[in-house]
Amino acid sequence: MAIKIITSAVVGAVLLFTAGCSFIPEYSQPEMPVADAWTDKGLESDTGSEPVAADIVYQDYFTSQTLQQIIAMALENNRDLKVALLNIEQAKAAYQIKKSDQLPVIAGSAGLSREGVPEDSSIYGEAYTSDTSMSVGLGITAYELDFFGRVKSLSQSALETYLATREAASSTRIALVAQTADAYVSLLAQRKLTHLAQETYKAQKATYDVIKTQYDAGSTDQLALAQAATSTESAKASIYQYKRLAAQAENALVYLAGPGVYELIKAPETPFESIDDIGFLTRLPAGLPSRILLARPDIQAAEHQLKAANADIGAARAAMYPTISLTGSLGFAAESLSYMFDPSRSLSWGFSPNVTIPIFNRKGLKANLAVATVGEKIAAAQYEGAIQTAFREVADQLVARRHYKGQLDAQNALVSASRNAYNLSKARYDNGIDDFLSVLDSQRSLFGAEQGAIALKQAYLSNLINLYKVMGGGRMDTSAAN
To answer: Residue 419 maps to which CATH number?
Structure first.
C-alpha cells in the first residue's frame, strides 16, 4: 500500500512538472531592415523556382578539377574548420547537460553496516558486536519541479546556442572554400604575370642587344641605349616581383589545405591550367533578398542567438518565483537477507519537498531580468545589422559581376590596340621615321595593358568566388550533428 502511495506521489509530481508554465516571451522574427529588391534594377532575378546558392555544392560551382581537389583537401585538413566542428560538439554537450536538468537524477544505493563496540563505550559494560544492517534503495536529491519554466528556459537557450554554433561552423566552411579558391586564382594570375614578364624581358633584352650593337657601331646615341636598358631592367624586376607573389600564393594554399597540396600546385614545365582556362558557374541567379539572405548561415546563427536571448528572459522571469525541489528515497533495510525485500518488514522511504521563496534578493533578480531584456534587444539589433551587412555584400558583388564583363572586353581591346601601336612604332623606327623613344613608350604601354588584363581577370574571378560566398554558397550539411 505504501509503495502505491509513493509511486502515485512521484507520478503526480512529474505530471505537475510537465504541465508547468513558461515565461519565455512569444518569439516574433524581426522584419528585414532592407529593401525588397536589389538596388541595381538591371540585375536578373528568379521567380523562386531556381535553386539558391546555398543549395549549389562547390563541385558544381567550380568546374576546375584541380581546384575541386584542393578544396577537398582544405576541408579535410584545415585547423580552423576542425575547431569550428569541435565547437559544435562542445555546444551539443552543453545543451545535453541543460536538457538533463529537466529530468530527475535517480541514484541507486546499497550498503552494509556492522560495528564492534569497545567495553569503555558499551552500555552493557562489556564489548560486543552490533547486528549486521543491510540496505538497498533509490533516491532523488534536490530535483527542481519546474512549475515556472526556469529549467526549460535554460534548456531552450542552450539549444539555440548549439544551433547557432552549427551555423557558425557552416559559415567557417563557406569562408574556407572561398579563401582556397581565391588563393588558387591568385596563384594562376601570378604565374601568368611571371610568364608575361619573362617574355617581355626576352623581347626587350633582344632589342637592347640590337641597340647596343648599333651604339658600338656609332649609328645611334647613348640616350637610346640608356632607354633600352631602363625598359629591360624594369621587366627583369617584374619577374622577381611576380615570382615572389606566386610563392606567397603557394604558401597561402599550403596553410589552407595542408602540405599535400604541393603535388597539385607545383609548377610543371608546361602549365596544365592557366587563369584563362579555369571556369566557374557564372549563371548564379540573384533571387529575392529574403531568399538569399535568410539562407546564409551567419544570418541563421544570429537569429538563433536572438532566440537564445529570448529564452534567457524566460529564465530570468521564472527565477523571481518560488523554487520547489524534491528529495526522496525508497528502498529496503533489514538485518537479514531472508526478509530483505519483504515490504511489510523492511520497506523504508523518505519524502522531503522544499520551497525556496526569493524575498531579500528580488532587487538582484530584477536586475538580472533587466540584463536579459537588454541582451535580447542587443541580439535583435545584431541580427538586423547582420542582415544589412549581408545585403550590402551581395548587392556589391552583384553590381561588380554585371560590370566586370564590359570592363574585361574594354581591357582586352586596349591590349589589342596597344599591341598594334607597338608594331607600328617599331616598324616606323626600323624604317628611320621615328626615334627609339616612341618604341619604348608603346612597348611599356603594351606591357602595362597586358598586366592590367591579367589583374582584371583575377579580380573578375575573385568577384565570382565572393558572390558565391556572400550568397551562402555550398553551406555545410549539419544534419549529422543533430
So the answer is: 1.20.1600.10
